[in-house]
Amino acid sequence: MRKNPIMKHFLILSFLALAVLSCNNDDDGGSQSGENIVELAIANPNLSTLVEALEITGLVTTLEGPGPFTVLAPTNAAFDLFLATGNFPSINDVPVDVLEQVLLNHVIGSQINAANFVTLSRNYAETLADGPTTGTKLSLYFNATGAAIEFNGASKVIDADVLASNGVIHTVDTVIDFPTVMTFITNDINFQQLTTALTTATPGTDFAALLSGTGPFTVFAPAEIAFDALLATNDNWNTVSDIDEDLLTAVLQHHVSNGNLRSEAITDESTVTTLEGDDITFSLSLGLITITDGSGNSEIVLAVADLQAANGVIHLITEVMIPDTTN
Fold first, then answer.
1. Is the peptide bond before 66 cis (omega within 30 degrees of 0)?
2. Tens of pLDDT along 141-191?
3. Omega before 95 within 30 of 0, i.e. cis
4. How does 292-326 read in b/e, with b if 16+ C-beta sit within 10 Å?
5. DSSP 210-239
6. What proportion of the chain, given as a percentage, has pLDDT over 90?
7. Strand-pair partners of 71
8. Alpha-carbon distance 138 to 179, whole Å?
9. Does the first or last residue of the chain, that is N or C, have fewer Cβ atoms within 10 Å of its Cβ?
10. Cα angle at 326 between 324 and 327, to 5 degrees?
């Protein structure tokens, strides 16, 4: 497999700009209100179900706190659809622990105004909802390249920048479901070829169902430029669909392991067994994590880490990993 160090370094620099958002400022969107987030929600009749849900779960106190918070506030109509889909007669019939996590999946622990979303274009923020393992929090994918800011490919902002004394409210048209790793893969523009590889290019394996399932899984996800480099190694490959399905299936399985392996748990010279059967090995140097795949390629860089879904975690990598094809 040919190496292209120029492309790899370009990828690292490009995607460091897309690192998980941990903080933000509130320079855009006007002046803050004297009322806190809960008070503003109470004053909006279209958010009455949200207010009721906050009271049921005891999260009123949290969102009356100093923050700052970004609250993606589903409308009453959004909650009506959520209840109908879940066969809940009313908001009081949703298990309180489930409802609490649903609400926390709409709260970011920093203030992000609409202009900040647009400036960042595509990114991930960390919500207050619990991930699948202790101490983890769910990520939230946002895309602001279109006419509206969209979250996890499903929920759109319909009223932005309602500024509170302790943050900002963006009203959204859909209750945001807990993301799976497949949610992030299919909606993130950086994973378009990976999406094709996992779906139409491998019809004999239902990767979509697998990666939407219980898990947890760790997915080492090659970005677009990684697949471009792979396709360039074979004159007969113009798209991922041109790759032999059995080979592509084995390659994809070589990018998935069981468990929720986050970057802080990766140690130097540690290994993990992939679903394909081969091990991959990690190396740590100066804070950089590199991977040696089953074929011996040791130039794979973990460029963006810990995109946390409800059923696993995604790490963006710089090259497509190849298993040991000599077995």
1. no
2. 999 877 789 999 999 999 999 999 999 999 999 999 999 999 999 999 999
3. no
4. bbbeebeebbbbbbbbbbbbbbbbbbbbbbbbeee
5. HHTSS--EEEEEE-HHHHHHHHTT-TT-SS
6. 82
7. 107, 169
8. 8
9. C
10. 85
Place of tokens 């609490």: 100
Report how far residue 150's alpha carbon sits from residue 121's, in angstroms, rounded to the nearest whole number: 11
CA quadruple 34, 102, 219, 148: dihedral sign = negative
Are the C-beta atoms of 221 and 211 separated by less than 8 Å?
no
Strand boundaries in 8-154, DSSP class E: 69-74, 107-108, 122-130, 137-143, 150-151
State both tokens at 298.
């040791």
Q: Give the amino acid at 80.
A: D
Distance, CA of 297 to CA of 255 (rounded, Å): 14
**Which segment of 25-34, 55-64, 137-146, 250-259 scores lowest on mean pLDDT?**
25-34
What is the per-residue pLDDT across 273-317, written as a single tens digit (0 to 9) for each? 999 999 999 999 988 999 999 999 999 999 999 999 999 999 999
Nearest to 316 by CA among 237, 215, 225: 225
